[in-house]
Design goal:
With 291 residues, the protein is of the alpha+beta class. The chain has two domains: 135 residues, FAD/NAD(P)-binding domain (3-Layer(bba) Sandwich); 134 residues, Thrombin, subunit H, CATH 2.40.10. Helix content is 25%, strand content 29%. It has six helices and eleven strands. A four-stranded antiparallel sheet has the order 8-11-10-9. A hairpin with a 2-residue loop joins strand 6 and strand 7. The protein is elongated, with a radius of gyration of 24 Å. The two termini are 17 Å apart.
Amino acid sequence: MLDITHYLARERKVDEVIAVVRRGPMEVKFDKKEMEYVIDNLDQAALDQEMKRITPVLQSVGQDPETARATILEALPKALPKVSETRFRFEFLASPVQMIGDADGRLAQVEIEDNILVRTNGDTKAKGTGNRRCLEVETVIFAIGDKVDDTFGLPVEWNEFVKNPNPRFPIDGNSYEATAEDVFVGGWSRQASTGLVGLARKDGVVCSLSSDGAFLEMPYPFEEGTRITLEIDVEGVSILTKAEVRYTIERGGEGASEYPAGMGVAFSEVAPDARDRLARYLAEQNRRFGI
């Protein structure tokens, strides 16, 4: 949602962007970093009015409206200066029902239904009230959340693949390992629709290379159990390490339609100074692509 708002405010410089949000501000999926790119265009007076409107609903499920408001505004100190007068505002607790055209067949309004919040099995869900109203609009863009493929074969919980709570190779305290041994998940496979696109690239780095192993893309991988010697170039310095092939993906074999041919290897002999250099390199990649 906010990437679209960012584009409309900075590139198209439209008059107004209205984010219609099915639930409340405490359930939004964007984070502070994403909000920094658009918050300078946020109509704070409109936000205050909206918070006043939805306060009874938030309080009915034990949520603090002031905390919710502060969560949105915490991006202000590092706001990216706006380049347009685009007015950005939220319509919380609302679901689109239908789009309405004018006499010429052009979009004129979107009809929305007001929602309340209900607690169900520890989760907060939206429930329609039947009360409907219309917003004057010219364009509607659907920003629908994603989930991982629950038919892929890995356990799924809350629209995500279940991660190993005790990973062998954690990165910044995060688990990139599925519950199946030697299966790693990164990017939106690790957590769908979270953060900016840069997170997926960051995950690509940390999932293909760690201080303990790597995935090597190659057309004809070695057999599992093969011991090899690797030379890794880290910022112009060669690091030599012994490694063992733990798994392979072969051309035409299982998984080849979705993943490149190659092999996953575990490092077995890395000199302490080389391991430190590799760790520093990975930390720099995390900082560079981190959000």
